[in-house]
Amino acid sequence: MDLQNDSNHCGACGQVCPSGRCSAGQCQSVSACGDGSIGDTETCDDNNTTSGDGCSASCASETGWSCQGAPSHCQRLEAEPNDTRETATAVPGLRSVVLRGDISSNSDVDVYRLMVTAITDLRLDTFDGSYTGSGAGTCKDVDTLLELFREDGTELATDDDSGTALCSSLSPQNNSEVMRLPAGTYYIRVSSVSTATIPAYTLRVQLQALCGDGTREGTEQCDDGNTTAGDRCSATCRVEMASEVESNDTVETAQSLSSLPSLIGSSISPGTDEDVFRFTLDARSDLEIETFDGSYTGENAKSCDDIDTYLELLSADGTVLDSNDDSGSGSCSLLDPERSSLLKGMAPGTYFVRVSSYGSVVLPAYSVSFQILAQCGDGVVTGSEECDGGAGCSATCERIPSCGDGYLDYPEACDDNNTADGDGCSSTCQLPGLQEEVEPNGTLAEADARASSSPSVLLTRSSTGIAGGFQDPQDLDVYTLQLEAAATVRLETVQGGLNMCDFGLDTLLRLSDAQGTELSADDDGGNGFCSLLEVSLQAGTYYVTVAHLGPAEPVSYGLKVSFQE
């Protein structure tokens, strides 16, 4: 009997292997290519069976790539020499890819060739050699210079230290030069700022928006899955202008917008004219409505010359919900979530927008734009959404709080993104080893009652602390402290962990004697806005008061106590 390889009699105990595989006396698991686990015949597994991303369709590492971990994170390796545009290393045609290189001498530079197939928002970041493509990158002992060039060699953008530490970053959020890059060939150059060599660095290339892929992202106004004009979304993913249809000066005669986003070209004549537009939101949405002058087409720069508009948002019954005069460019109008909470998470339904001329002056031409900044149900978390789809997300894209989701929600005292014990946050998201607060305990008498009741809430030399909470901003908690002998007492409020105060908690800690006379107090002596007292006390009875200074919503806290002779 082969106990080393017989799957029915595997190992010294002769166990039957569920997988049907026995090797070296141990049962082996069976993995399939694309499942994220590396099987016996696989050299990588990146959770898919697509070639061209470093790990092939048969889960083999591809030439010119380095794959690490399970699931595998693959990096494209630079191919030297690559110090000119002619010898540049090609960047794979992926939405996000990490390349790995080194600067071997003070004259070495690395050049990469990027082919962009459609208008894109581009992001480039450098990190040190430890970055695999997963999680946050670090920048230890690396100082890079990052440059982006057009195909003809003209420099578009450059950055030294806008990334992590001394690493570099070019992003649409901070660099307009990498927003809405036209299709074409670009070159990325990485070099060392000082004369020092860089044994290893990584370069992350991300297409944060790609016009025509069917998902509206970044600076796109629309994306209908193609780059064809004439279908309300232009070849450059900008909303194409439609014309106003008169008469539309009342809610009853309002011009209907078939869908959003929309851009309408219109006029106000005579000066007392009003234009009313009707639209319907199919899902909870963040909305932006803005006016411009007649020169704006959606493709050019926004402008507002020689016009002054007034904008109103109306409910289905015609009630004015919000209005704006001059928050847009110049004297144009703007309603958006940043300036009005009513435009944030708007409920599904029918709404009206009314545009008029401020001062009843004739406006020969103007345009009004309707943009959905976030729409619940599209699977993309944007705007005011806390989530969008999946377990733990409501139909209105709000989180459904649960222990282990990584968010601290009352009455949780901690949440470390799991429900395991033994890691400083219990399986029920409470701080281990602490007594539980019992209400009411807002006075000295109530504190004594809690100390003598069962279960007792009492601080003694054997205590490690109390887990409490504030249900409203006026709530305060009083605890009895009894000392059988003189001791130095350390009292500290915490939140999120036994050594943390990271979630906005703001407390005030007071220590009083048996008559209620205050002996000591502290506001922000602990971590963050938490409190800390360290006081030498004689034997006797004392009271510890924890007061709530913020936030306004219900919040949990921990009161730690320790003693020294």
From TrEMBL:
<feature type="domain" description="Peptidase C-terminal archaeal/bacterial">
    <location>
        <begin position="108"/>
        <end position="192"/>
    </location>
</feature>
<dbReference type="GO" id="GO:0005615">
    <property type="term" value="C:extracellular space"/>
</dbReference>
<keyword id="KW-0677">Repeat</keyword>
<dbReference type="Pfam" id="PF13948">
    <property type="entry name" value="DUF4215"/>
</dbReference>
<feature type="domain" description="Peptidase C-terminal archaeal/bacterial">
    <location>
        <begin position="476"/>
        <end position="547"/>
    </location>
</feature>
<protein>
    <submittedName>
        <fullName>Arsenical pump-driving ATPase</fullName>
    </submittedName>
</protein>
<keyword id="KW-0732">Signal</keyword>
<keyword id="KW-1015">Disulfide bond</keyword>
<dbReference type="InterPro" id="IPR011936">
    <property type="entry name" value="Myxo_disulph_rpt"/>
</dbReference>
<dbReference type="Pfam" id="PF04151">
    <property type="entry name" value="PPC"/>
</dbReference>
<dbReference type="InterPro" id="IPR043543">
    <property type="entry name" value="PAPPA/PAPPA2"/>
</dbReference>
<dbReference type="GO" id="GO:0006508">
    <property type="term" value="P:proteolysis"/>
</dbReference>
<dbReference type="GO" id="GO:0007166">
    <property type="term" value="P:cell surface receptor signaling pathway"/>
</dbReference>
<dbReference type="GO" id="GO:0004222">
    <property type="term" value="F:metalloendopeptidase activity"/>
</dbReference>
<dbReference type="InterPro" id="IPR007280">
    <property type="entry name" value="Peptidase_C_arc/bac"/>
</dbReference>
<feature type="domain" description="Peptidase C-terminal archaeal/bacterial">
    <location>
        <begin position="273"/>
        <end position="357"/>
    </location>
</feature>
